[in-house]
Amino acid sequence: MAALLGATAPSLGCSQLTRPPKISDLPLRPSCSCSSLPGPSTSGRRQEEVGLQGSGTSAFPSRHARRTCGMERAGRSGRHSSRRTAIILASGAAGSLGSATGGSGKPVSSPTERLLVGLAIAYITLMVLVPFANVFYQAFHKGFAVFFECLADPDFLHAIKLTLMLAGVAVPVNVLFGLVAAINITRNEFPGKVLLLSLLDLPFSISPVVTGLMLTLLYGRNGWFGPMLQQAGVSVVFAFTGMALATMFVTLPFVVRELIPILETMDLSEEEAARTLGANDWQVFWNVTLPNIRWALLYGTILTNARAMGEFGAVSVISGNILGKTQTLTLFVESAYKEYNTEAAFAAAVLLSTLALMTLFIKDKVEAAAAAETKK
């Protein structure tokens, strides 16, 4: 602190140290770093008192210098954050954010390269585009009247309602869980952290059918918790509760896995500078942390919603696939096709395909907005 006062003394003058200095009177960059300022310890306060006694001033310049140094550190953190965000978005970290910025590859010129590109396009056409187009053809080749008649089926409408309800439960729960888990995992070190990260990836590696079977064995009539739940009058298997548990399980990792890479590369000095300026934990999260992770959070939410609406295996096992009661859109497609009601099956498939197209559209908009913000 004495060094800081010594550095500012030539520009302020000894007679001006008795009044609070103006920001315009201070040099642009103090000669000391923020890390050299005294902290809340007793030794730091003693050093501050000694320096102030030697210069004959009050304690106000010390607090003002600390605030100025915190503002300078916040400015440097903001510049580092902009460069870091540009790198992340350009490299496509956390859910391929930034792919809308384009690449810097060389043009295809040689015959071998043209052949490889042609093979890739042909493969995508046969595996994705042709089946996707066939779904719409099968749904509309008998006319729009048949299509809209299938949409008015009560069982079809119940399947849509149940699908939206499951997504409405699973998405908010896993977004909140992923946000809290990602912040605590990246900001703390604790025993079992590696094991916890591995457990978060478990829904990716376990088959959804196995997930449904596990939940059935746990909450079924003869399961571990079945008798207790039966006495309490709670139904899990062949009910909405079990379907919600299965959906939440399979969609659990998306948000947290999108946020962890961003939080790990985030400069912690931004949050430290905000706390130095007097911000509480909620203000730090709302004004510093959330703006840095909002694109990854939104992207993870989109993926969670798409996975929840398209889940089949786990929900099929634990729901029992009861028509008009525990049947989602994906289960309705299978049931209608097996009963040779192809028009209703393809009508439901068109609706699911439309939801997929909407997801891709929102995803592109998110990437474009992230890329546009990086260019500012």
Explained architecture:
By secondary structure, this protein is mainly α. It has 2 domains: 90 residues, no CATH class; 234 residues, MetI-like (MetI-like fold, Orthogonal Bundle), CATH 1.10.3720.10. The protein contains 18 helices and no strands. The chain is globular. The two termini are 38 Å apart. The N terminus is likely disordered. It comes from Dunaliella salina (Green alga). It is a multi-pass membrane protein. Keywords: Membrane, Sulfate transport, Transmembrane, Transmembrane helix, Transport. It is found in: Plastid membrane. This is ABC transporter type 1, transmembrane domain MetI-like protein.
Summarize the model shown.
The chain contains 18 helices and no strands.
Q: Can you count the beta strands?
A: 0
Secondary structure tally, helices:
18
In what range is the share of β-strand residues? Answer: under 5%
Helicity level, as a percent range? over 70%
Report the average pLDDT across residues. Answer: 77
Question: CATH homologous superfamily of the largest domain, by name?
Answer: MetI-like
CATH topology of the largest domain, by name, is MetI-like fold
Please identify, by name, the CATH architecture of the largest domain: Orthogonal Bundle
What is the CA-based Rg, rounded?
A: 30 Å
Structural class: mainly alpha
Number of domains: 2
CATH class call of the largest domain: Mainly Alpha
The global form is: globular
- What is the CA–CA distance across the termini? 38 Å
Membrane topology: Multi-pass membrane protein
InterPro entries: CysW_permease, MetI-like, MetI-like_sf, Sulph_transpt2
Protein name: ABC transporter type 1, transmembrane domain MetI-like protein
Biased composition (Low complexity): 34-43
